[in-house]
Design brief:
Blueprint lengths: L3 E9 L6 H17 L4 E3 L17 H16 L7 E10 L2 E10 L2 E7 L11 H4 L9 E5 L2 H7 L3 E5 L2 E3 L4 E6 L1 H4 L4 H7 L4 E6 L8 H13 L4 E10 L5 E3 L3 E4 L2 E5 L8 E9 H9 L2 H7 L7 E3 L25 H20 L4 E4 L4 H22 L3 H11 L9 H8 E7 L5 H14 L2 E6 L1 H15 L12 H29 L7 E2 L5 H6 L20 H15 L4 H6 L18 H5 L3 H13 L4 H11 L6 H18 L34 H27 L1
Parallel strand pairs: 1-2, 1-11, 2-3, 8-16, 9-10, 10-11, 17-18, 17-20, 18-19
Antiparallel strand pairs: 1-15, 3-4, 4-5, 6-7, 8-9, 11-12, 11-13, 13-14
Helix pairs in contact: 1-2, 2-4, 10-11, 10-18, 11-13, 11-14, 11-18, 15-16, 22-23, 22-24, 23-24
Length: about 700
């Protein structure tokens, strides 16, 4: 009968504008799919040019080179006898669309434009593309001459249609369309489409994977069918890490799961499924069948090709599996580590330099680099030739084989403890011990000479010498002296990043890593142009709470016992003088709020979309057991004052791995002014009015109870 269909999906580590590399990875994925018996292959969204081209989509070059790659794919023997579904931008009647181009044996079957564009959070698709708004409508698309010469076609169907093969019917969705309330797969399923495909450019966010998996499974739970999901993976050239998770689902259950984090540039998932299982599943859902009898049909593109074989009764089919999710700590260990690896190899640098203070944030950053080295060693052990070639180029040794992460760390990771007269011996010892355990090349230096020189220039010019507050100076003087130390550390970090390998007789330079967490960025608890100013920051989108849990994970899984003392020590900037040789300055005291409170403020401000008044209204209920309304009001006012005073720092924030949906990243995720009226006079008056009303109500109730 022809009932067992074999289909393939993939996760590809594509790179914006890397047309040759993208072509090579696409061809490899098709070859793997064919070798495993697949008759249909789905790839990620915009895989030909890379998803993250941004304003390069405006350039005619991007369209031209995409069609040149498509020409190579059409001509390749690898693409014969398999339906190939690839993504690229297409200009139709002078309008740019985000499209799927589906072809078979040098013939384009359909160009399907995206209907619902992603335009929230990190996504700006409406800036570059126009959604296709003509439901179930197909037009003629005139092919460029270079494609006509290969296909022999002058025009091909362009629009909202489905493919009808000899044995089944396929319909395409694209990324955001799965997330919309009225997804195309609903109507397509009612119209008899049995296989749904989704090509995505979906990035990693902590604790997001289950949402994506639930959406894919639910797409076929009520309506039946096979759902094939492809996604990009890796660092495409910016702050996002696309986390794969290619999957195939049938009738509401997962039958094939791809990895969420890996160093494999090409990952192909293949499944053989029985179409009769879809048909029998649908047959007993009477409500679905009643709706299907009234649905408006989709235009069908007939394809003289089958996804199954005539005699396939004995062909084994895939069975449902249980999805294996990573814990948040595992996600932090793997996601930013893979992102760092992509950034390192694609920037063609020789490693990283990290100012290691002995605190939680910089230690967590060091652990992520260690995890990266662990992943590299594991990939090489598993036979990944691409990773081996990259690591040999990075360390400039064609015979090198990484076997243990500590040894690789020694080659690619430099840590530097920058002491001052305000630094304690405890943090120095903690940094040194952690460096020894992860294997980094560690440097100890003292910045006091440089600090005195800078302050000396100021004193020579002005005739005044600033003092710390503990020595009788004003808060302005004390803050300025703290900032000088922090900024000198940044200057020295870049100097050592450029020349450390030169001193060691090794070629190349190092990328400087920052280590400010998402909560400190939100509060602005950092010095502008200090060590938070780096090339990239793997923890800039991660909360302090999650970082502490990640540190505990590293103690247990990497046996980094040096982290125990780091976990137990109170977070401190160590920029003010010691008292009796001990640290007197702590982060939470300096900030005037706890890290736990900061996380709540951040989520309410960004995810809850709360201004000062709305945040107050929410928190008087959340904190009613621990705070009075007046105390809540004071906390909210203080947060918004500090947030708005320091918002300008976000404009120069180091590019950070995006991991939280309350990130204050000013680049494109959290678009807000950086010059505020920091009095918030109207908003704060509304809060005060509400506090007084609550106090009056409480007083009235108390009086009634007393009289009663």
């Amino acid at each position: 009968m022809g009932r067992a269909v074999t289909v393939a999906t993939c996760a590809l580590n594509q790179w914006a504008l890397d047309f040759q590399g993208n072509l090579d990875r696409i061809v490899r994925s098709i070859g793997i799919a064919k070798s495993k018996g697949a008759r249909y292959r789905l790839g990620p969204e915009l895989e030909i040019c890379g998803y993250g081209c941004s304003d390069h989509y405006y350039e005619s070059d991007t369209l031209l080179h995409s069609f040149q790659v498509l020409e190579k794919l059409l001509e390749s023997p690898v693409t014969q006898d398999i339906i190939c579904d690839v993504g690229m931008p297409v200009l139709h009647r002078n309008v740019r669309y985000n499209c799927r181009v589906i072809f078979l044996n040098k013939k384009i079957l359909l160009i399907r434009p995206k209907i619902a564009l992603a335009n929230a959070g990190n996504y700006r698709e409406l800036r570059w593309f126009t959604p296709w708004s003509k439901a179930r409508h197909v037009e003629e698309y005139f092919l460029p001459r270079i494609i006509q010469e290969v296909t022999g076609q002058e025009t091909v169907p362009f629009g909202d249609a489905v493919l009808a093969t000899k044995d089944t019917c396929l319909g395409a969705e694209m990324c955001e369309e799965l997330w919309t309330p009225n997804s195309p797969h609903i109507e397509m399923g009612l119209d008899g489409v049995e296989i749904f495909t989704n090509s995505s450019g979906s990035h990693h966010v902590l604790r997001k994977a289950h949402t994506r998996v639930d959406l894919v499974n639910s797409a076929t739970a009520k309506n039946g069918g096979i759902y094939i999901f492809a996604n990009q993976k890796g660092c495409d050239g910016d702050r996002l890490y696309y986390d794969g998770c290619a999957m195939i689902s049938m009738n509401g259950e997962t039958v094939a799961q791809g990895s969420q984090f890996s160093l494999d540039d090409v990952e192909v998932l293949v499944a053989t499924l029985d179409l009769e299982d879809v048909r029998s599943y649908r047959a007993e859902i009477s409500s679905r069948n009643l709706a299907a009898s009234k649905v408006t049909p989709y235009p069908r593109v007939k394809v003289n090709f089958a996804l199954s074989c005539p005699d396939d009764v004995a062909v084994p089919t895939c069975m449902p599996i249980q999805w294996r999710y990573h814990s948040p700590e595992e996600e932090i260990s793997l996601g930013p580590a893979c992102w760092l690896w992509d950034y390192l190899r694609r920037s063609k640098r020789a490693g990283f330099l990290l100012p290691l203070s002995g605190g939680i944030d910089s230690s967590a950053t060091a652990c992520i680099v260690y995890s990266m080295c662990h992943q590299v060693c594991l990939a090489v052990k598993n036979g990944n030739a691409d990773v081996l070639a990259d690591v040999r180029r990075i360390v400039n040794d064609e015979t090198y084989i990484p076997e243990v992460p500590q040894e690789l760390c020694r080659r690619v990771f430099t840590t530097c403890y920058m002491a001052s007269e305000n630094s304690s011996q405890d943090t120095c010892n903690r940094a040194k011990l952690l460096a020894e355990q992860i294997g980094s090349y560690h440097i100890n230096l003292n910045i006091d000479v440089a600090v005195k020189a800078v302050v000396g220039i100021f004193s020579m010019v002005t005739g005044r010498t600033p003092r710390f507050s503990v020595y009788g100076g004003t808060s302005r003087e004390s803050l300025a002296l703290q900032n000088v130390q922090a900024r000198i550390r940044m200057v020295l970090a870049y100097l050592f990043a450029q020349l450390t390998l030169w001193v060691r007789g090794m070629p190349g330079g190092l990328l400087v890593l920052g280590s400010a967490n998402v909560d400190e960025s939100l509060r602005g608890y950092l010095t502008k142009y200090d060590c938070s100013s780096a090339d990239i920051n793997p923890i800039g989108g991660i909360s302090k709470t999650d970082l502490k849990n990640f540190i505990q994970y590293c103690i247990e899984n990497f046996q980094l016992t040096a982290l125990r003392s780091i976990m137990s020590a109170p977070p401190t900037a160590e920029l003010e003088p010691l008292v009796d040789g001990q640290v007197a300055q702590t982060d939470e005291a300096d900030m005037g709020m706890t890290y736990a409170e900061l996380s709540i403020y951040g989520k309410l401000r960004k995810i809850g979309k709360a201004g000062p008044y709305s945040m107050f209204c929410k928190l008087i209920n959340m904190w009613k057991e621990i705070c009075t309304p007046r105390e809540v009001a004071a906390k909210v006012k203080y947060f918004f004052r500090m947030y708005s005073v320091n918002r300008h720092k976000m404009t120069t924030l180091t590019p950070s791995y995006h991991a939280e949906n309350y990130s204050p990243d000013d680049n494109r995720f959290d678009l807000r002014p950086f010059l505020y009226n920091t009095t918030w006079s109207w908003q704060f008056r509304c809060i005060d009015k509400q506090v007084n009303a609550l106090l009056s109500l409480c007083g009235f109730i108390s009086t009634v109870l007393t009289v009663g």
